Amino acid sequence: MSIEKEIQRRRTFGIISHPDAGKTTLTEKLLLFGGAIQKAGAVKSSKIDMHARSDWMEIEKQRGISVATSVMGFDYRDMKINLLDTPGHQDFAEDTYRTLTAVDSVVMVIDCVKGVEIQTEKLMEVCRMRSTPVLCFINKLDREGRDPYELLDEVEEKLNIKVRPMSWPISMGKDFRGVYSMYEKKLVLFQGSKQQLSDEIVEIEDLNDSSLEELVGERNAEQLREDVELIEGVYPELDMEEYLNGEVAPVFFGSAVNNFGVRELLDCFVDIAPVPMERETDERVIKPEENKFSGFIFKIHANMDPNHRNRIAFVRICAGKFERGKNYHHVRLDKKFRFSNVTAFMAQSKEVIDEAYPGDIVGVYDTGNLKIGDTLSEGEKGMYKGIPSFSPEIFREVINMDAMKSKQLEKGLSQLMDEGVAQLFTYEMGSRKVVGTVGALQFEVIQHRLLNEYGAKVQFQPMNLFKACWISSENDQKMNEFIASKQRHIAKDKDGKLVFMAETKAWLQMVQDNFPEIDYHFTSEF
Ligand code: G4P
């Protein structure tokens, strides 16, 4: 098959949701439809259970599971679908943000009882940064949820995206009867079965057909006709360009646990979701069909076994064909590397592969040369853009508890930062090291891993910091003045970029007012 054809049949996406909205359940049902798994219950949730917070074995076990389910590839209707898992636990949000740089679109799951929740809002902001196309699945219609119109309004308002319903629920909760798919002009009747994959599907070209009454009852039939008329009147037809620019989200209703509405979502997804598109490096825009391979690393997973210090780096292929055993260029180090042990991820398993195409994710074994954001290529010199670090929310100073193990600590910290576990800031004065994270759980992970994998014992001292802002300025003189005046609060990130460590919100505001020539950035990419 030509590379163009391979690209056309690929759909690479992620599912995002607030924890408990049904991401794991929906993932599982999609895999069932794709024939990648045979029975429900096979996909383990990658979420870290709150009860497991202090149970290390449990967290390690979860980490093990999450590598297996990090990327799930399956075939559906001649398409090769790559579903990237995103950790649901908010302490691992940064991992999710990075994974979103490797997808071409997302499916967002919303619980119809709870509506738009905080984590969904945050994830949507990340999608918006990259104009990622979003399809929305409103889940749990078998429960008494909120009014569907109200839910749609909430999505528009809180997520700042227009919506276009593609299906419409017929009642909900105990009375839930099914959905009418405006996209396919089909009535899908709810059976309420978790086991069955086929629902009763009735083609209804004309909703005025009197058979509707027989199928859903008089009251529901009338209501559905009214609703559909209203929707068609209020919401314009789905504009594909707007969808692909992330401006409008097609919306489906269903119940993942009951396997209901999932096939309709998947069929529409396969029809409309974007194929791998061109991507930008700091030198030029690269098209997927170019014949030379290039891709970037968005995730690194360390082997938890201290005897096998290798790691798996996840490469998103952006252009050309990737071939096992070929020499590729490591752009940051300006060196050639050869990857002979390359895996593709199928649902639940890894398998060695010989070649992969744009949109695919491959895992390469690494002994410490790769870090998140690295570009691999067949000669191309530019680095792919778009893997920012976000300003962390919690900061703690690293205290070395064993002076004899400074080297191990240095190495351990550096490797964990390459994996993107957290961010390290080193103060210019006194070389104090501060770790910044999105959630408190990471400190436990770091402490545990430093000790077990590197033999370095640390403690963390809480610090009163509000934000780390990356700073830049067109005016060198002003920049120097700023650094001189704020010396004690200037640090460098892992790449040596200058960061201003602001202690409070009010103080940051004051500094911004006093030094307007400085640009303050809340992500590392600007
Ligand atoms: P997450 O990955 O987004 O965190 O959510 P997950 O799929 O784990 O689903 C969270 C809970 O919601 C699960 O129940 C799941 O069974 C339930 N759920 C998912 N889809 C539906 C739906 O369509 N209707 C209803 N009523 N519930 C749904 P749980 O009790 O936490 O776990 P379990 O014991 O059922 O597995």
Bound molecules: guanosine-5',3'-tetraphosphate
Task: Please state the second-level CATH architecture of the largest domain.
Answer: 3-Layer(aba) Sandwich
Distance between the termini: 39 Å
* Strand arrangement in the largest pleated sheet: 18-17-23-14-15-22-19-20
Approximate shape: globular
Radius of gyration, rounded? 25 Å
Q: Supply the CATH superfamily name of the largest domain.
A: P-loop containing nucleotide triphosphate hydrolases
| Overall number of domains | 3
Considering DSSP H and I runs of 4 or more, what fraction of the residues is helical? Answer: 25-40%
Tally of individual helices? 14
Largest sheet: 8 strands, antiparallel
Give the low-confidence spans. Answer: 48-56
Number of strands: 31
- Percentage of β-strand residues: 25-35%
The helix/strand class is alpha+beta
CATH topology of the largest domain: Rossmann fold
What is the name of the CATH class of the largest domain? Alpha Beta
Structural account:
It is built from 14 helices and 31 strands. It has about 525 residues and is α+β, with helices and mostly antiparallel strands. The strands form 6 sheets. The protein has an 8-stranded antiparallel β-sheet. Strand 2 (about 70-75) and strand 3 form a beta hairpin. Helix 11 (about 405-420) packs across helix 12 (about 440-455). It binds guanosine-5',3'-tetraphosphate.
